[in-house]
Amino acid sequence: MNHLTHIDSTGAARMVDVTEKTPTVRSATASALVLCAPHVVEVLRDHAVPKGDVLAVARIAGIAAAKKTPELLPLAHVIGVHGAVVDLEITDEGIAIRATVRTADRTGVEMEALTAASVAGLAVVDMVKALDKGTEIAHVRLEAKTGGKSGDWTR
After folding, report:
1. pLDDT score of 36
2. 61-85: buried (b, 16+ CB within 10 Å) or exposed (e) per residue?
3. In this predicted structure, what is the pLDDT of residue 71?
4. CB-hemisphere CA count at 13 Å for 21?
5. Distance between CA 52 and CA 40 in Å, rounded?
6. Known catalytic residues?
7. Alpha-helical segments (H) within 13-153
8. Within the chain, which residues score under 50 in pLDDT?
């Protein structure tokens, strides 16, 4: 690819026209890591966070975010999010997040997966910020994508 698809001939931002593309099955997986202090990890493992079930709240926040991606990113297409799974695991560092989004549409779901992982991370931070203001989100990245004209890709 030798040109930017979201820029027109005058250099202005534009939404790519995918009208003529045939819908195909596509998926994308993104990850993020919420870095927590050791005392926060201990509270998470004990299921004793004062605000409640951190993993459940973050999971639902990530799924909801995947469906709202075009509202947040102005050039993202409105597509059918046909499947969204957000997995969270408490680790020694904090919480590892993995979001996979699937569709059968004209464009991919990479941004939906990245949005799901990011917002799930934000939900974790919101749930534990009273325990540690230093909690941070790190390593938000695309892990893999399948389908579409560019084919499959894995980090």
Report:
1. 98
2. bbbbbbbebbeeeeebbebebeebb
3. 96
4. 17
5. 13
6. 126
7. 38-45, 54-67, 69-72, 110-128
8. 1
pLDDT of residue 7: 76
User: What is the reported pLDDT for 41?
Assistant: 98
As a whole number of angstroms, the distance between CA 99 and CA 87 comes to 6
Token readout for 140 is 């938000």
Burial of 13 (0-12, 13-18, 19+ CB in 10 A): exposed
pTM (whole model) above 0.85: yes
| pLDDT at residue 4, as a whole number | 64
Tally the C-alpha atoms within 13 A of residue 49's C-alpha that lie toward its C-beta.
24
CA 15 to chain centre: 21
- CATH superfamily, domain 24-154, is Molybdopterin cofactor biosynthesis C (MoaC) domain (3.30.70.640)
Contact between 147 and 101 under an 8 Å Cβ cutoff? The reply is no
Spell out the domain ranges in the chain: 24-154
Euclidean distance between CA atoms 147 and 104, whole angstroms: 9
List C-alpha distances in Å: 107 to 26, 67, 79, 126, 130.
Answer: 8, 14, 8, 32, 40
